[in-house]
## 1
Amino acid sequence: MSKPANSVLHTPLSRENATSLYEQIATRLLEEMEAGLYEPTGRLPSESGIGERFGVSRVTVRLALDKLVSEGAVVRKQGKGSYVAGRQVRHGLDTLRSFHESLKLQGLKATMRLLEKKVVTLPDDVRQRFAPAAKGLFVQRLHLVDGEPVALGDSYLPHKLHTFSWNEVERQPAYSLLADRMGEAPARADIAILAQRADQRLADTLKISEGDALLVMRRTSYFTSGACADHTHFYVRPERYEFVMSSTFRAS
Amino acid sequence: MSKPANSVLHTPLSRENATSLYEQIATRLLEEMEAGLYEPTGRLPSESGIGERFGVSRVTVRLALDKLVSEGAVVRKQGKGSYVAGRQVRHGLDTLRSFHESLKLQGLKATMRLLEKKVVTLPDDVRQRFAPAAKGLFVQRLHLVDGEPVALGDSYLPHKLHTFSWNEVERQPAYSLLADRMGEAPARADIAILAQRADQRLADTLKISEGDALLVMRRTSYFTSGACADHTHFYVRPERYEFVMSSTFRAS
């Protein structure tokens, strides 16, 4: 029997085995999922990708995936492909928290990588928020889970924070930096959630393709005085990320 | 002078005019924006599309758009193109409202078109929410602004609502139908906001391209008793749509 083209397997499938091919493939994928091979996004390769890798037809791949779905190990998402079940990141919005804190609260191994930190003249739309200040600290941080990028945060912060070291900004959540330097944490935030397609810069940074869907959170935080504490865009890889909240009726 | 290829202009640009080409183009685009030509998405054609239409270089198109941006008539959105300014739909989540009501609250001319209405055996993941009921009403409605689709809502509702007529379901917001038939409106909802790429069905229905980014709201509403009132996915065209809310710190 010839080895399938493009095989990346350590052990080839057995075509003489009593176990059917699709069951062997299901077992192999399950082992890889358990070994964390598809973390943190949880996305499995496409059906055609799996078929090519194992040298089998798409029908066989579907049978394997159907088996994993029926066992609850894999979920299919409309228009998005197949995913390792049960690792959805649910970022709660009912309580104000730093993005980094929200990831850690999920029990995820969350880290940050500081990409940029510089004093800037605030762009017009940001300047009005921080008025009368004309300058601020711009910080760009990559949020990672298990070492893989899940979101990019572009933040404008009060100028006073510019004396923090590179290491401090890389490690401390924004609200912790603000509390340390300003003497109080933000009291509230206006939040907007939107979607856009990734441009080349975002695609490269987040390791996705240009044009992929991104979930975006725009957050402007305020101190109790009403002074602006931060203005941040978070560009989030959406595969298994969702923002959640409870909403109640109230007199308006 | 020859007419530019692919021109759809009623009046061609004047290349002998004292007014520069880019200013003429800016004026033309502004007139069209004011006439509502780019509503409801507000998206202007691409730079290359505008260039081709007017038979001018991309540099000239950029000058025209820069002029409109500096005048506040157009906004550029990273990775999304140029948009008519100031018609962002801001869907507030702080208070629970029907999707349709939220659009009307923005002062938009919002309508619904009923695409499907049928009694169904509830899918497994929905059935547990409506337990012990095994059947429910499935309703698919297109939400339009100025006659153009902005969102598709796929709703599961209590079986008791199946006696409403096609017309009633097409016209009444979900929470109004629920209040009429169940004797009370939902008291709270769990909401998740996510992003995904449009598959062929969603792309066709929403008049976008397969693979385009979609903003998705998944909502499960409950009556005060805790019984499930609706389970709905809203697939939203994201160009100018954002979900907004305020978040405050609280002891957790």
Note: The beta strands of chain B are 74-77, 81-84, 89-92, 110-121, 135-145, 148-158, 188-197, 213-222, 228-236, 241-248.
## 2
Amino acid sequence: MAITIRELAQALDAQGWGDLDLKVTGAAEPQATGPVGPEGGVIALAMSPKYATALQPGSMAILAEGMDPQAYGLKAAIFAPRPRLLMAGLTRAFDPGPDIAPGIHPTAVIDPSARLGEGAAVGPFVVIGADVTIGRGARIGPHVSIGRGSRLGDDVLLNAGVRIAHGVTAGHRLIVQSNAVIGGDGFSFVTPEESGIEEIRRTLGSRDAIKQQHWTRIHSLGGVEIGDDVEIGANSTIDRGTIRATRVGNGTKIDNLVMLGHNVTVGDDCLLCSQVGVAGSARIGNRVVLAGKVGVNDNIDVGDDVIAGGASKIFTRVPAGRVILGNPAVKMETQMEIQKAIRRLPRFAEQLARLQETVTRLLEKG
Amino acid sequence: MAITIRELAQALDAQGWGDLDLKVTGAAEPQATGPVGPEGGVIALAMSPKYATALQPGSMAILAEGMDPQAYGLKAAIFAPRPRLLMAGLTRAFDPGPDIAPGIHPTAVIDPSARLGEGAAVGPFVVIGADVTIGRGARIGPHVSIGRGSRLGDDVLLNAGVRIAHGVTAGHRLIVQSNAVIGGDGFSFVTPEESGIEEIRRTLGSRDAIKQQHWTRIHSLGGVEIGDDVEIGANSTIDRGTIRATRVGNGTKIDNLVMLGHNVTVGDDCLLCSQVGVAGSARIGNRVVLAGKVGVNDNIDVGDDVIAGGASKIFTRVPAGRVILGNPAVKMETQMEIQKAIRRLPRFAEQLARLQETVTRLLEKG
Amino acid sequence: MAITIRELAQALDAQGWGDLDLKVTGAAEPQATGPVGPEGGVIALAMSPKYATALQPGSMAILAEGMDPQAYGLKAAIFAPRPRLLMAGLTRAFDPGPDIAPGIHPTAVIDPSARLGEGAAVGPFVVIGADVTIGRGARIGPHVSIGRGSRLGDDVLLNAGVRIAHGVTAGHRLIVQSNAVIGGDGFSFVTPEESGIEEIRRTLGSRDAIKQQHWTRIHSLGGVEIGDDVEIGANSTIDRGTIRATRVGNGTKIDNLVMLGHNVTVGDDCLLCSQVGVAGSARIGNRVVLAGKVGVNDNIDVGDDVIAGGASKIFTRVPAGRVILGNPAVKMETQMEIQKAIRRLPRFAEQLARLQETVTRLLEKG
């Protein structure tokens, strides 16, 4: 894979400079690059002056606008108007993608009633069940299994070991990282009589006689419905709904080791970072960002455009647009004040004790 | 799968009403159902008046006791004495189960010394090791592996990609969701001399000279012992013990992405929700409920009937029957008081400052 | 597997006592052992007087130095100078290891260009891609997949279902537990214009007009580089870097369900316990210990020899050698003081109110 500086600048919607015919074969940090000959080579990413100090004369680089390629002695350069955005185009251009050969591997076990669109690449030991339909251009890694009746759109990429159970639907361009599980049974159990959890929810914490009871399983008849342009991280799990589907909206990106419980709905264009957990029947709005290790209680609403800082634990409804932090999560400004006050607590305690003493002395005098 | 209202009511140990011969083919939320013809159809779940508003005349519904089917114009109804409990029977009746065909798939690699009871369904690419024994009616999904000498009871369900290592035993009716790992090696290491962790446990936080040391592995010779009626969620991990087994009691249900460390014992009828972590050698009693993201320190005891709220972090022994919350976890009432006080902290700070000023003025006057 | 007391003592670099020719076939807790005949049997682990009370006369035991084997009526004993360290040697001696038969299973799909060193054991349904190189003595369990061009050293052990993507390198003696994923794509996205997260990082929490934007993917061109003697736990995930590799140093041990984000670097001889999450581009020093459920923010430094207590959330840089705890994590001593003060908060509130009253009365009198 090699394209010229001219073609790369064009692909990135950016401005080229210098020898536009040099060939680019990849991109790397400045310290991993060097001078290139007439045949070109690897382009350095130096989109801030800080990174540019490691540039060597005679090399090629991507710079931020306003930086001077001649000052670094470059042979060629591309100017990035918004560096992070340019990274998207650049990395896409050079990504060879996962290791899935074209065509259907002879070891794959595909039910005769399943339908795959044209251009499918299916790896060794894949298992596809009855009545599954998958659109065009699917890439399915080794050891993936897809259960009866599931329906996926065009251009999906399922990496090695992904589990898609029966009755799951997803739109176009779904990307799932290895060993993620979509459509496992919900975690839903009931006791013959009121359980301890139901009791403390009703009484806000106090309990009468504790009874021995066994848990009976509520089965999950709903599936999982996933929109277009969704990504799901490695070893994440999305459980099926009880009598309706668990839902993930268009454009939502989910990181590794994330848990979405049964009946959860997540809106469009959300970011759910690693180790987030959303308990059963919670509703997450559109464009919500949950940072790493955030937890969301069952059955609550998190409004559109909410941003929750790392490790926030959300126990109650959050209005749209709010930025929250902490355990329990509160407005970020409030949390900052609380943290400041908590750090001063030992000093408060001292001050209070001294004040008490002073007042006691005043009283004695009086 | 279709049964009459009469049969369904009987199966659910509930009262039927109206045209008891109508056929039920499934269950859904009221808005996803409608009027049914003489051939029957999907029954609406409307077990509280709130949900019942979406019922359409001419449909069938499951109602709470005391609700009036005629007021909604229903053709047939079933009255649920305890709605959540009825959900268990209802969903069981209509669950088609995972996608595992009867019989043993020809691609499965089963050691000749392994013994499977009658009625086994074994999916493609399953690997079963030497001396494994499995009871009657096993359902084993694609890509499952079971190591040498493991023993499972009757009617187990192992979904696609489950890993059961060597030397694991489990009782009847075990259900394991996809990609869970039972019997991985424990996380147990030792340094030639006292390590930093051992030092701060001894000194409660202070450290002398820091030494460079490498970690040496303590191997896990114990297995995992699991009782009857246990469920284990997707991508959860239960490590094997060091010289005795890690143990999970009868009737205990474990959600997705849960971690049980080496030598842990969990009692009977517990609920361990998603992303719970229990560190090595901790002992969890019977009927304990750990909500999502709860953490339990190594080597401590959590008594019978303890309920720990979401994201609680348990660092020390918890007596039986206690309801706890927070990080560090304390009695729920105490945590509630603490949270209230913390929210008022900034106001305390102000009040204290004003009081200090007042007293200073008093002193100056005096 | 059976060796004499003499051989075992020698292997453990410890002192034997009594009938040194007795054969040892395994080790267990005292209550699971008993008197042995001339053919030997299982040795009891009784390395503190507490455990020794369950010893039966006529049995064999490993004791701490200074304990008296005659007092317990033992036939033979081994004295452990540092009990935990001895456990390492002892358990290694008796670990039969995972269930992977020697040789290459005929169902494995290995690209002709891949090179495995001598002595490889490769289980059923393994998939190894083009240009993969693996050193001598590899043990690779069933259903493992290794992507194009990855390079592993000698004596690696990959348990069932492990996923190693393309472009991953690792040193000697790598051990990976089942279903772990190494080399999944990083979680890195960008919006065409400034996103809400970028905005609140810039403004420290406040937001202007909220815009609807979609996330564009930044692909991961970097791989993962892992040193010698590393272990990675079940269902853990290590993402590939963006333009350079994500890195894990020599001797570092990683527990189950741990997440290392893209571009993270972890130094040598670290311990990362279960459910730890390290966000993108964070840098962890050497000999760092992160206890269970610790979270590390993206882009920050955690210095050498830092120890973070259970569930600590690290938002900012941590200097070398510090022992930290809490959310947000602070010095352990400070956290202890804070916790003490927080528990006394309700009493502070009362004291403050009473003091206020007293002062008010004083003022009225004055």
Note: Chain B touches chain C through 78 residues (CB under 8 Å).
